[in-house]
Amino acid sequence: MPSLRTLLTLPRMLRHGAAVGAGLPPDEAVVLDVPGVPLRGALAAAGTGDHGPARELLSATRLGCQWELRDTYVSELAQFALHNPGWLDAWLAAAPDDPDAALVKADLCIHQAWEIRSGARASEVSPEQFKAFFTLLKDAVPVIGAAAELNPADPVPWRVALTHARGMQSSREIFDAYWTEAVERAPHHYGCHASALQYLCAKWYGTHREMFDFAEQAAEEALPGSKINALPLLAAVEYEIVAGGPAADDASGADVIEPARVTAALDRALELSGWYDPGDPEAAGFRNHLALMLARAGRWREALGVFREIGVHATAFPWSYLGADPRREFLDFRTAVRMRVATRTPFFGTPPAVPVPADASDWAPRTLAVASASLTAVAQAALLCRTGLRLAPAGAGFTHVELTGEGSLAGAVDLFTAGEKWPAVVLQRSGDRYGITLYAKGRKVAAHEWAPGAPVPSLEAAGATAAALATAYGVRDTRPLTALLRGMDAPGRRLADTVTALGLPALPEGFGERPAALDGLPGARVLAPAASSPGSGTPSPRRTARCRSPRGAPRCACRAAGGRPGRCTCCCSPPPPASPGGAPSTTGSARSPWC
Questions:
Q1: Interval 275-294: pLDDT, tens
Q2: Residues 6 or more apart from 250 whose CB is under 8 A from it?
Q3: Main-chain dihedrals φ then ψ at residue 355, nearest 5 degrees
Q4: Which residues does residue 433 pair with via DSSP β-bridges, in sequence order?
Q5: Per-residue b/e over 279-308, b at no fewer than 16 CB within 10 Å?
Q6: Chain segment 216-250, per-residue pLDDT in tens
Q7: What is the pTM for the complete model shown?
Q8: β-strands 399-403, 366-371: how paired?
Q9: Is the dihedral of CA 498, 503, 504, 510 positive or negative?
């Protein structure tokens, strides 16, 4: 029996849920750790072996003393080189004394060592992993030293050195020496401060109190708007999320952090967030930490506001502390916060008005499905879909499908391929990212996304996806498909080439540019949702009539009856003729699926 609390809160959730969610991008639009536009171009070029754009990007940050931006670019390029090293090797071979290439190489050495060790706790790391880890870190010493010598004014090599000191279990004297070098070059460099904070936290070589003292002092000395003001927030996450709060074995309470210090860290970060525009990728890192901590503190409305300011820019940390799928954790927390706010709004109250961001129209991914069946067959299979669909013939044996309203095209395809022998693919564009997802028999079989700057998938992963696609469409040679999936440059062209390689019809003009690419095409039809209002012209599945087949004739087995032969809503009637302009006619059988 429902509890009294449920009876009180559920109506509020249903009434206010949509209004409270205003200003939040749809789940499908949320991305994880997507680099900025300039860096994306450099990463895409590096994926083809061209180091030129990366060289120009880092040279500009060095000459302009843009140390924060330089640190971000170096870290991302090193991470990319971890599994795609050819472009960096070529750069170093051509210019071994280039300070930018040397710096990326130094950071790559750290990434390679941590890749071997993994992010697991020390008790879960094998002796063999530790041995390889320390060997790689020792080999990195001259590389880091060379990067520092080639550009003496640069603080970023000292951020790399501070991270190296943590991995090598260096003494406090060595850490202090590196820290002195860093702050002499850039007293308020965020990357160096964040690396030092990790060394001083309790899970490494400091204590909770030392970590908080360091973070709070740095924030007090920071300029307004500087991300260093977020250091106490990072300390709060380390204390409450990573360490789990006060240690159970600390009977003296000497290393317990007062709740007021955590509250002050959240308030300071909220003030910092106001210095950045909504959706600013530069603020995404600390805003993701802030949203999590505000939600844990029960400050639901403030957490929801921060989620709105994050927009589509989810980050791996801190959500990876909560589970293996950080993007899923982000979305689940965001939904929970929205529902909390809705249930706390009086039933007859009004949620605060939220202005819709100017770029909200760019959030929704553009999706299009290609079903390997005739238009009539797809229409009959899709009768129970609870979202409006537009269908258009796409050549012999193919149909293009897109949404006409709210809902998920992937969910609709998942539903209408169940029980059918033919597959369907959902093609997607979101910004400069393109994707393809294969569905068959009501389940997702394979998926791939092309994103500029994303790591190139392994040969095994790309081969498995290529094999699944080839099997579905009778393609014998998977090698061209595998090659298409392993490139991250020109995502739109690669998607179009993949569609061609699978023998599917060409993408309609306007796909990815406008939400209704099929509108106005010859033969296009609109299929109304199954859950229609009275008088809409589309019968509800709950009111299906008995199939009026002649006595002795086989009964219709239309899927609209949920798999029960003898009941249907269309009696296999053909769609009505199109009216001028491609719109469906309103005349014809009352049992037709067409609206």
A1: 999 989 899 999 999 999 99
A2: 256
A3: -70, 135
A4: 430
A5: bebebbbbbbbbbbbbbbbebbbbbbbbbb
A6: 999 999 999 999 999 999 999 999 999 988 764 45
A7: 0.70
A8: antiparallel
A9: positive
